[in-house]
Specification:
This protein is α/β, with parallel strands linked by helices. It has 15 helices and 16 strands.
């Protein structure tokens, strides 16, 4: 139901009762799960009307999302957001609430998940999910004791980022991938086969604008045409549509629990064509043929969900301007008379031992030895890699607050409790610093605190005149 927002962007708010009536044919055909969000226009209100006024509405599942603005948030605000979703959907319990993270370096996203899990335990939410979260941070949330059931991410024959680490983490933890973008906004259909390259700035819908950027990242129009010709050949063998083949391919990928196909309520429906997905299975030869064509495309940059966190922003607008006004610094900055800047991360250790998380003097930044402490919790449980990813997030948060980024790091030191963990620690460091290449030392050390498996400190030198605090 993301398309609701696109329709309303042009035509104003839909009549919720009329739009709810347009949901009825889907449920009558057996397509009974609807995905929406707090920011998908009036989608929740439409679904609430359908649930309240149609007997078939009681047969459906309603998945929604909460996408709060970045920055400080309270337990009360989390509960208020859940209550608003319940009110708009006219439910007593949300079937699935999916949470979006804007900035991993701001640990408030974990606070939100812990408080959402409180709501789940109280019966306000049946299942918790994430949306656009990468494999490392999905793993971090699970290792921290948060029962994540699904992760909604872009996944298509154009975008195979989910096929490696994400699939592994989901399979190991019984997390279902909810794949969106499976038809690339409609580009993966007969309509675009053999067509000349469009004017990318004049495309009529948000979906087309967004997935036009994906096509560019995947290698351009010629690569898309090659994919479409491959899908067409297979579609002819199975006597179905190109869309059916593109969708069936993702449905057959490991860990995929479902695919999400856009519905323009009251305008267009492809119900009968979509139902054909239940009538066939792609054989090994067809799967291999599609995989070969997929491998011929360039890989979409970054990890799952990075299109909402870093350049290139593969969004409808090409940036985050239609989502956010600003990206607040994760931590408060204190500045003294000598212009020395400091940030605290709020751990009890800092007050007890008389130190801060990071100090900036001129263009130099020193970050204290950092563990996976957040308030009174150890993030990542007893998983060393999850702990280290959170530690690097904390270091990144301190740097962002002081006007820098991980790209400014010139020195890192890792301390592992168990020397057998050194390779796993090195892999995490490599995943986060492979393009930065600071100098590094890794040693075994007896860490303070039984729960801590790894500690890290860092030094950075900011490039003069560059302020990355809001990037």
């Amino acid at each position: 139901m993301w398309q609701v927002a696109d329709i309303e962007r042009k035509d104003g708010a839909l009549d919720t009762r009329h739009a709810a009536a347009a949901m009825l044919p889907y449920v009558q055909a057996g397509l009974t799960t609807f995905d929406m969000a707090d920011h998908y226009g009036t989608s929740e209100l439409i679904a609430g009307d359908f649930y309240q006024h149609y007997a078939e509405g009681k047969q459906a599942q309603y998945f929604t999302k909460w996408v709060p603005k970045p920055g400080p948030i309270t337990r009360a605000e989390v509960r208020q957001a859940v209550g608003e979703r319940l009110q708009r959907l006219k439910h007593n319990c949300l079937d699935l609430l999916q949470f979006h993270v804007w900035n991993y370096a701001d640990p408030s996203w974990l606070d939100c998940l812990f408080w959402l899990d409180e709501c789940r335990q109280e019966g306000m939410i049946r299942h918790l999910g994430l949306t656009n979260v990468d494999a490392a941070h999905l793993h971090m949330a699970i290792a921290s004791g948060i029962p994540i059931r699904t992760n909604q991410i872009s996944y298509s024959v154009l975008d195979s980022r989910a096929a490696t680490d994400m699939t592994k983490i989901c399979a190991e933890n019984n997390v279902g991938i909810l794949a969106y973008g499976t038809l690339a906004g409609g580009f993966l259909t007969e309509k675009w086969l053999g067509q000349v390259e469009p004017d990318w700035q004049a495309l009529p819908t948000w979906s087309l604008l967004k997935y036009g950027r994906f096509i560019g990242a995947a290698g351009g129009w010629d690569r898309l045409q090659y994919l479409l010709r491959t899908l067409q050949g297979i579609a002819q063998r199975y006597q179905v549509s190109i869309a059916n083949i593109a969708c069936r391919y993702i449905l057959q990928q490991p860990a995929v629990a479902g695919i999400i196909i856009g519905a323009r309520l009251g305008q267009r429906a492809h119900i009968q064509d979509n139902l054909k997905l239940c009538t066939f299975t792609l054989d090994a030869e067809s799967l291999a043929e599609i995989k070969s064509a997929q491998d011929d495309c360039q890989r979409i940059p970054g990890n799952c969900g990075d299109e909402y966190r870093k350049p290139p922003f593969l969004t409808a607008s090409g940036d985050l301007s239609h989502h956010l006004d600003e990206m607040p610094a994760p931590y408060h900055v204190e500045k003294d008379a000598m212009q020395t800047m400091r940030v605290r991360s709020g751990t009890a250790w800092e007050d007890m031992a008389g130190y801060c998380r990071a100090v900036r003097r001129g263009n130099r930044v020193w970050i204290s030895g950092t563990t996976a402490t957040h308030n009174a919790r150890v993030i990542g449980g007893q998983d060393m890699q999850a702990q280290l990813h959170f530690i690097i997030d904390k270091i990144e948060g301190a740097l962002q607050s002081l006007g820098g980024s991980l790209a400014d790091v010139v020195r890192t030191r890792l301390y592992v409790k168990n020397i057998d963990d050194w390779q796993a620690a090195a892999r995490v460091h490599g995943a986060r610093f492979a393009e930065i290449l600071p100098s590094n030392t890794l040693v075994q050390a007896q860490l303070v605190g039984d729960d801590y498996l790894v500690e890290m400190e860092a030094e950075a030198e900011l490039i003069a005149g560059t302020d990355r605090s809001t990037q």
